[in-house]
Amino acid sequence: xxxxxxxxxxxxxxxxxxxxxxxxxxxxxxxxxxxxxxxxxxxxxxxxxxxxxxxxxxxxxxxxxxxxxxxxxxxxxxxxxxxxxxxxxxxxxxxxxxxxxxxxxxxxxxxxxxxxxxxxxxxxxxxx
Length: 128
Prior knowledge:
The protein contains 2 helices and 8 strands, in the order βαββββαβββ. The protein has helices at 16-27, 77-86, and strands at residues 8-13, 30-32, 42-47, 50-56, 69-73, 102-103, 109-114, 120-124. A 4-stranded mixed β-sheet has the order 1-4-3-2, covered by helices on one side. Strands 5-8-7-6 form a 4-stranded mixed β-sheet, with no helix packed on it. Residues 5-126 form the VOC domain.
């Protein structure tokens, strides 16, 4: 069987400019060239060759729950949570307790929040 690596995450977004600004403000992701097309889709680098593709869909209505999310890791979750607070971005734990992170059975701390379109994002300290 062939092996696989994550290449990119693609999200449909109402306003691509608002979404790019959000992901740059929250994560400082660098915008990179969309080499696939001349569309208004914008790409951000997640590092290590991974990408986030933001595809404009002005009539989008996102309906999802926290179990449908993508997760990013940081070595300093406490500092990142302070960053969310400074940006006035509401976060919660897995059980929806506002302003609280969650400790999994394996000891990993995590918090959840939503982007402007309602997509759930988990940030944890699994990589530390």
